[in-house]
Sequence to fold (123 residues):
Amino acid sequence: MALEDQPTGAASNEDEDLGWVKAGAALILDDESAVHLDIGGHGLCIARSLGKIHAIRDECTHGQVALSEGYVESGYVECWMHGSQFDLTTGVPTGPPATEPVAVYPIRVDGDNIEVRLPISDD
Ligand code: FES
Fold:
């Protein structure tokens, strides 16, 4: 099966990123769920919602809480600590207390495998 781009988030500068990095098997992820992965120095929340895979930074912008431990539903992940919801496609929170977007990484699916395009650093 040909690689299939899922346009999520802002485009990366090819000279300043790690390129496409394998992130595991897409099939192990149930719909409306998320897992944490550490890849290339990045903590990632890999989520599947509405049948689509997303990769975002696994840290709420309101506090140091893993979004992968939150609740995934209808294209959003809800932080379990104070309830801010983040759009899995844009990273933008829908309301307080979080006000800053979470980093979103481009992702593509090759058959059963997920690949994520990571920057060298997103700090
Ligand atoms: S720590 Fe996530 S909303 Fe407060």
Observations:
- The chain has one domain: 29-117.
- The pocket of FE2/S2 (inorganic) cluster is lined by residues 60, 62-63, 65, 79, 81-82, 84, 97-98 (CB under 6 Å).
